[in-house]
Amino acid sequence: MEAILTSIIAAATPLVFASIGETITERSGVINLSLEGSMMLAALAGFAAGYHSGVWWVGFLAAAAVGAAVAALVAGSSIALRINQVAVGFVLALLCVDLSSFLGVAYVRQRGVSVPHQPIPGLSEIPWLGQILFSHDLVVYAGLALIVASTWWMFRTGSGLILRGIGERPAAAHARAVPVNRLRYRYAAIGGALVGIGGAAFSLDVKLGWSFRHTAGFGWIVLAIVIFGGWHPVRAAFGAYLFGALQVVALKLQPVFPGLSQILPLLPFPLMIFTLVLVNRSWLRNLADRVPALRGLLSTDTPAALGRPFQP
């Protein structure tokens, strides 16, 4: 059981980064539908940068830059050019997927760098909990820390309140001298950088190497997880770990059902969508009304200005 839970946490780490990144972006009022392509292009950029430099963290920096650039393009299309950001994001998703396939030809089946395994001394020796939480690498630890840090920042700081304000009531925020569009650029880029890190976490940590369509399907799953998470970092992370659990279970079942070996790896995708369908928002609201302390965590309200350009 310990080994399974450890595998789930490791497998879900790229989705944790990407889902929290997209949560931040959408909280600012920007929809970044390019995730399927930006994650794939970032995974390639991370692998290529790590391959040529021989340093794994250089790969993550390159991937973050790619993710931030794509997200900034989506934000700019709406803010500066007044083009529909949903359409631009979808086109960029397709473009980045094909671009990663074209640029990645030289890296297929090449052996690159990887994030070294670094158990935390002392903590990793704690019975049961030590192996599950403290026997990973720096990327996994960073993902766990990101959940706590992003939740605290979003709901306990002034800048987090401003983030939510420009995604809910941009006109009111502008009336208080908040630079709405400038902050939307900033948070779109920050969220995109985290999405890029999630892409690099696949090629440098979880799914080592590079292959055509290396992260195929995961970008769309991240978008679904953000909705499932109600634009809350903790719930988004829970959705990521749930999908990670489905992946690990499918992998464990392959030796048991060898005749279904081609189908089992695909099962987590429809099962995750099925789970999202089962989530009844009215049920969550009723639970939040009964337990006020959980109201913020269980909120499923879409940011009021999501996808709506703001012109002062």
Description:
With 312 residues, the protein is mainly α. The chain has a single domain, classed as ABC transporter involved in vitamin B12 uptake, BtuC, CATH 1.10.3470. 69% of the residues lie in helices and 0% in strands. It has 14 helices and no strands. Helix 1 packs antiparallel against helix 9. The longest helix is centred in the middle third of the chain and has 27 residues. The termini are far apart.
Question: What's this, in brief?
Answer:
The chain is mostly helical and 312 residues long.
Keywords:
ABC transporter involved in vitamin B12 uptake, BtuC; mainly alpha; 0% strand; 312 residues
Poorly predicted sequence stretches spanning 5 or more consecutive residues: none
Count the DSSP helices.
Answer: 14
Q: Provide mean pLDDT, rounded.
A: 87
- How much of the polypeptide forms β-strand, as a percent range? under 5%
Helix content: 55-70%
Pairing-aware structural class of the strands and helices? mainly alpha
Order of helices and strands: HHHHHHHHHHHHHH
Distance between the termini: 55 Å
For this structure, the CATH topology is ABC transporter involved in vitamin B12 uptake, BtuC
What does the secondary structure layout of this molecule look like, with pairings?
Blueprint: H1 2-27, H2 35-53, H3 56-79, H4 85-103, H5 129-134, H6 138-156, H7 158-168, H8 170-175, H9 180-206, H10 218-228, H11 233-253, H12 268-278, H13 281-290, H14 295-298
Helix pairs in contact: 1-6, 1-9, 1-10, 1-11, 2-3, 2-4, 2-9, 2-10, 3-4, 3-9, 6-7, 10-11, 10-12, 11-12
